[in-house]
């Protein structure tokens, strides 16, 4: 993992623009680079399955779902308003049998708690809040 980008990767120009969005929207930080780096290290250390993720930027941009945790995450993370992690995967058992749903929330959620993120889980997705107030854009409704 040495040499991989960390949460603060990015140039001064992009960070200045992000600070502008944060100030204009009067957002308060709910996560920091240390927490994001712990999440990156944890996911990059997985040797089997890794979850998909997407994020919403303080600029209003919403990414597509991705599964590459080395170079594709939203660097610098100071621009992440929210970060969604998919908690399940599907396993094909046989052609005529229904897919088997595997719940990875049993190991992801405790790690998010250990790191100390402010997050919510709904409909097989964990949303980590990078900033407050919480933005529920395109997040499943509460039961």
Summarize the structure.
This protein is an alpha+beta fold. The protein has three helices and eight strands.
Kindly list the characteristics that best describe this protein.
143 residues, alpha+beta, 4-stranded antiparallel beta sheet, two-stranded antiparallel ribbon, globular
Report on this structure:
- By secondary structure, the protein is α+β, with helices and mostly antiparallel strands.
- The protein has a domain at 30-61 and 75-132.
- The chain has three helices and eight strands; from the N terminus they run H-E-H-E-E-E-E-H-E-E-E.
- The chain has helices at residues 12-24, 33-44, 105-115; strands at residues 28-29, 53-57, 80-86, 88-91, 100-103, 119-122, 125-129, 131-132.
- The strands form three sheets. It has a four-stranded antiparallel beta sheet with strand order 2-3-7-6, covered by helices on one side.
- The model has no long low-confidence stretch (mean pLDDT 95).
The assigned structural class equals alpha+beta
Low-confidence stretches: none
Strand numbers in spatial order across the main sheet? 2-3-7-6
Coarse shape: globular
Please tell me how large the radius of gyration is: 16 Å
Instruction: State the helical fraction.
Output: 25-40%
Distance between the termini: 39 Å
Count, helices:
3
Question: In sequence order, what are the helices and strands, one letter per element?
Answer: HEHEEEEHEEE
Largest beta-sheet characterization: 4 strands, antiparallel
Mean pLDDT: 95
Oligomer: single chain
Number of strands: 8
Strand content: 15-25%
């Amino acid at each position: 993992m040495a040499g991989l980008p960390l949460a603060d990767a990015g140039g001064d120009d992009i960070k200045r623009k992000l600070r502008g969005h944060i100030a204009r929207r009067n957002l308060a930080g709910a996560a920091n680079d240390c927490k994001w780096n712990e999440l990156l290290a944890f996911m990059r250390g997985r040797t089997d399955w890794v979850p998909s993720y997407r994020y919403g930027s303080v600029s209003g941009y919403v990414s597509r779902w991705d599964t590459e945790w080395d170079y594709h995450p939203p660097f610098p993370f100071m621009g992440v308003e929210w970060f969604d992690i998919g908690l399940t995967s599907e396993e094909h058992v046989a052609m005529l049998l229904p897919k088997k749903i595997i719940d990875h929330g049993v190991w992801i959620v405790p790690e998010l708690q250990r790191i100390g993120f402010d997050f919510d889980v709904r409909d097989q997705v964990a949303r980590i809040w990078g900033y407050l107030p919480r933005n529920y854009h395109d997040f499943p409704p509460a039961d």
